[in-house]
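Forwarding these from the shared drive since the link keeps breaking.
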Amino acid sequence: MLKQSLQLRLGQRLAMTPQLRQAIRLLQLSTFELRQEINEALESNMMLEVDEDDTAGDPATPTADTDDGATSTADIPEELPVDSSWEDIYDTGTASASAGSEPWDPVQYAPQSAETLREHLAWQTQFAHFSDTDMAIATTLIDAVDDDGYLHEDLTELCRSLTAELGVEPDEVMAVLHRLQCFDPPGVCARDLRESLLLQLQRLEQQDATTELAHKLVADHLDELAERDMDKLLRGLRVTREDAGAAIDLIRHLNPRPGGEISAARTEYISPDVFVVRSREGWRVELNPESAPRLRVNPVYEALGKQLESARDSETLRNHLQEARW
C-alpha cells in the first residue's frame, strides 16, 4: 500500500539568465573583438554613447555618472546579482548629452603611410638648386631607383632616352647622378654594391688609415672579401691581421641596402589585453584600461522615453535603455 508524504528539500542551482549568458560571451572576447562589439552597440543603440567628458580623469579608475557628479569605484559594490537593475544601485544622470557624439572608431588614430624612398629623394632635390633641365634628369633617375636604393636600370639606355627627350649629353646625366649620390641616405643611387659601399665610406666623418684600407678592400678586393679568405687578403694587401680586421669590421657596419632606411611600411602597434605586474605580494594581472571606451546612457533620450505617450515608441526606448544599461 502506497503512502503519500510531503518533504521539504533545500538546494541551490545556477540560473542562466540572459545577463549571465551575455557576460560569459563577453568574457571570451579578445580586446579587438570587444571593441568591435562595443562599436556595433554604439551604432545600433540610441541610448548608448561614449563618455567624452571624462578625458581629465585617470582611465585606469572608471567612474559612474550620477546626478551629483562622478562617483568613484570605491562606492560600487564588488559583486552584484546578475539580474539586478541599474536603478537598484544608482540614479541615472540628467546632464545634457554632449553634442556631436559619434560611435567610437578603433582605427580613428591609425598611423599614416610613411614616406617612400623616392619621395624622400624628390624632397631633397628642392634644396639642391637644380636647373629645369637638371631637375628633369634628376626626376628620371629617381624614378629608376628601386626600394633598396640602387639604380639598376641601364644608365646607357637612360642617357639615350634623356638625350632624345631633353637634348642633353651623357656627361650632364652623370653630373646629376653624382649629385644625387650625395643625398641622404648615404650610398643611395649607386649602380652596384661596390659603388654604394664606397659612397658610404666617403661620407664617414673619420677618415684615417682604417678607412683608407677599407676603401681599398671594397674597391679592389670585394670578391675576396666575400669569400672570407683572410690569408689571401693579407698577402695581397701586405698589412697586419689586426689592421685588416679593423677595416673589415668597419665595412660590416655599412648598409648594403641603403634604401631600406626609408621605408613606406606602416608601424603596427599591438594593444595588450592585460598587464602582468610584479609586486611584493607576487604577480598581479590587470586589465588594460584602454581596451574599451567609457560608456554612459544618453540622459536626453532617457528622459524622452519617460515622456512619450505612444506605447510602441515607449517600449522601443525602454528596450534600448535596458540594453544600454547592461
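-- next protein --
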Amino acid sequence: MSKITTASIRKFKGVRPIVCVSAYDAITAQLASEAGVDLILVGDSVGTTLLGYKTTVPVSLEAILHHTSAVSRVNPQSLIVADLPFYEGHLRGDELFKASAKLMQLGGAEAIKLEGGASISEQVADLVSRGVPVMGHIGLLPQSYHVLGGYRKFGKVESEKDILLRDALALQEAGAFAIVAEMVDAKLASDIARNLEIPLIGIGSGSDCDGQILVSCDLLGMTPGYVPVFVKQYADVKSVMTDAFRKFVSDVQNKTF
C-alpha cells in the first residue's frame, strides 16, 4: 500500500469506496493503516470516547494536537486528517491559519477538517490558498450540539435538502478535497454524492456515499455508553478487555501471578 494523499482520495471517487476511521493513538493508527484504511481522522470525537466528555465542545486544540502527534508518529500509510475543534473552528484569517498550521507542523496532520457548509466557504478557500488541505463536514455538526439541543437526522424536509446541497457545492467550489456527511438522509446523500466531483464520505448517511467513516471505538465494540444506531460493530473488544482485567484481578488476589 502506497502513501495515501489528498490527491489519492479525490481520485478514488467513482473508482472504489473510500475507507475512513476516527482514531486517536499510535497503536490504533498503526493497525488501521496495516488493515488498509485510506484515511485516519483524529476527530474531536476523542472527547466523547477517550476523554469522557458529554459532547465534543470541550475538546481543545492542544488535545487534538496531542492525539494527532501520536497518530503521526507511526507514519501510517493512511492520510492523516485532524479536526479543528470548537473554538478554532470559528476563527478566521491568520488565526484560523495558525491553528491549522500548528496541527500540520507540530502534529503531523496532512489535512484538517472543518465543520460547516456555505457559511464557512470563505475560510475554506483562504486555508486552501495558503496550502492547507481541507475536508468539509455537513449535516449533523456535533460542535453545534448545544444549538441543536441534541443529535438528529438531516435532509428529510425540502428546505434542508436545498441547504445541504448548496453547502456541499460551496465547499467543493472553495477547494475542499472531500466532505463528510453526518446523519444525512440516505436518498439525499446519494443525490449529493452524484452532484459532486469530490468524494462524499458518509457516517450514518446510507451506503451510496463515496466512502464511509466510523469511530474506531464504536466499530471495535469498545464504547461503554451510547453507540449510534447506524454503527456496525465488527468486534466485542469491550468484553475481551473486561474479561482480561477480571482474570488479572483474580490471579493477583489468589497469588497465582
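The longest helix spans residues 158-174. DSSP finds eleven helices and eight strands in the chain.

- D.
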